[in-house]
Amino acid sequence: MLPGRPVQAGRLSWNLTMVEVESNNALILTLAIGGAIVAFILYFLRAAKSEEENEQQKSADKKPQNNGAAKNTEESKQTSKKKQNHPRSEPRAVAFSHPWLYTSLKGHSSTILSMDFSSNGKYLISCSDDRSVFLWPSKDFSNKEHKSLRINIEFDHATKVTWSPDSKAFIIHKSVENCVEVYKLNKKSDGHGFSGSTKLTTFPKHHIDEVIAMGISCNGKFIMTCSKSTDLVLWDLKGQIIANVDTYLMSNNCGRVSPCGRYIAASGFAPDVKVWEVVFNKSGDFQAVNRAFELQGHKSGVLDFAFNCDSTRVATLSKDGSWRVFDTKIDYKKGEDPRLIQSGKFELASQEGNHIAISPEGQLIVCSTGTTISFYSVESGKCEGSIQDVHSGPITSLLFDSSGDQLLTSGDRHIRVFHNIVGFKLKLASLKTSLKSNLSSAMKDRIQDQISQTEKFLGKFKN
Description:
Layout: H1 5-62, H2 64-85, E1 101-106, E2 112-117, E3 123-128, E4 132-137, E5 149-152, E6 158-163, E7 169-174, E8 179-187, E9 194-202, E10 211-216, E11 223-227, E12 231-235, E13 241-246, E14 252-257, E15 263-268, E16 273-280, E17 286-295, E18 302-307, E19 313-318, E20 322-327, E21 339-345, E22 355-358, E23 364-369, E24 372-377, E25 383-387, E26 397-400, E27 406-411, E28 414-419, H3 421-434, H4 441-459
Helix pairs in contact: 1-2, 3-4
């Protein structure tokens, strides 16, 4: 063995030992530095959290009511989650029923805002904020299943809808764009019914405020739109403005075109209904809008009003809790004023769902307040019946069919069609009274047949 070998082995062992020591020292130093960094980060996060809690506490001391709101919001979220997790625990909606109910039209998925009958009586049209317009054949009302045609309104929804006089097109007012559009209905290949629609024109946007009413004259010469402010605008069918009327009502609540096409009218904050005549020359060109007459007597703003079928009577509904019916068969140019026929009281339950409708012959009015409808005789002024909870939300519109045999209401997602039982009773009383007049035998026989048919019909609804 070489004499130097043991010395070299000892040196190697020493060197290895020194390397291990240095490595351990480096590891310890790294761990120490890392621990210090982690401790510093934790200290910083705790300090920041403490400062945030202090700020929240200060804010809570300044606005203690926010804690309650936050708490309520949190409770609401928790309740909502519970409902989502346990949908079966929610009570089911009770189906509406009433002896006078003829049928309910279902199809819309959201609140129905407006509806209108075609002039030929064959179709009902309705619009909803679910971006749809529905056409309902009236002949199917008696069926268990109701056919309908759905027309979608792209990127918007209709707030008002009305038929054209020829029943071949309809007009809507769009909510977001706040403008009027005209749609032509496309007939099916067999010529029976409609298959869809085609948009014909979009009127230029004019109203600044929301449009609350829209109508078209029976002769098709003009379309009327009325906004929440005091403007009432007349358009031709091409979308050109022919007249702009300031109602001077401070704000408008309602606007109508009379069924005869001669008048336009508006009501609002003031207690009067203002009526204008729309004048055309013999060649059919527009001439002027002339102030005609006013319906007066209410003590507060008029919420709604309605013409009967021949524009000879107007029913008004006021915020003062009263309704009135006027005789408007007058010659205002000779200084004649409308005559008050009857007035009565109704219960103004809320600021929503307050509407009025008058039967075609003008002998019956129906008032809605919230979700209740009430029937009043124009002759006596007495309430002849009422129906409560017609819809789950406020009633949005009332409408008689052309015969006056049915009353339609809209609200929530349904249209209710009622038999006008009160109207039939009033008709029966009128027929019996007419028998006492000096009539020919043929006329008396005819009236007696009508009495028999009416009594037979009403017999189905006796308790």
